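Title: Prediction job returns without error message
Component: structure pipeline
Severity: low
Priority: P3
Assignee: unassigned

Description:
Job completed but the reporter wants confirmation the result is attached to the right record. Sequence as submitted:
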Amino acid sequence: MLISSYNQVLVAFSLIVAILASYTALDMAGRVTLAKGREALSRLIGGAFAMGFGIW
């Protein structure tokens, strides 16, 4: 059986990155409803990128 260990600093950092990415993606999704045209598309893509990066 493999022995596993976690670096507490990296775990905390990953949690902070995930929270910030989720907040950014949700904020940009809320702004999509106020935008029109290319601005709405760019905010949608930016939010998707932020959430994808945060999950990764």
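Comment from assignee: result matches the submitted record. Residues 8-32 form the longest helix (25 residues).
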